[in-house]
């Protein structure tokens, strides 16, 4: 379904001779609105929910990376700042190596944090934080990413009865 969305958006942008960033964005919005109007006709409720949650997650995560970049700059450039680095062991909500890998990559992309190791048998992930006043502070930040990521990834699998043709009726 994502392929269809991409194909429609790029096709609409090309047809409008607007293959510039704003034109492509406008085409994506137009296709999204069209799909939103045809949600029941096409049976794409789950797809659109995942698309919405994924877009929300991406914008939120970019904001978190920006915020963390400012924090790291404050630590590096500050004269009287004494960072307190720490390694925190944290049990993940889901014991899945693929999820742990994705979460670890997102943590490593965030300035000031790095995923060091994951132990699948115990579900523990070891995380290095550049400035950790307490382990709870580090865990709260990781839990925020974990919660939003799980909400996005599980959106297509939650609830949702089908009508026998595989179409979502919720």
UniProtKB/TrEMBL annotation:
User: What domain of life does the UniProt record list for this protein's source?
Assistant: Bacteria
Could you list this entry's UniProt keywords, alphabetically sorted.
Cell membrane, Membrane, Transmembrane, Transmembrane helix
Transmembrane domains' residue ranges = 26-44, 99-116
Give the species: Thauera phenylacetica B4P
GO CC annotation terms, alphabetical: plasma membrane
Q: How does it sit in the membrane?
A: Multi-pass membrane protein
Output one GO MF annotation.
monoatomic cation transmembrane transporter activity
**Name of the protein in question:** Cation antiporter
Q: Where in the cell is it found?
A: Cell membrane
Q: Does the keyword Membrane apply?
A: yes
The record's Pfam families line, in alphabetical order, gives: MNHE
State the family it belongs to: Belongs to the CPA3 antiporters (TC 2.A.63) subunit E family.
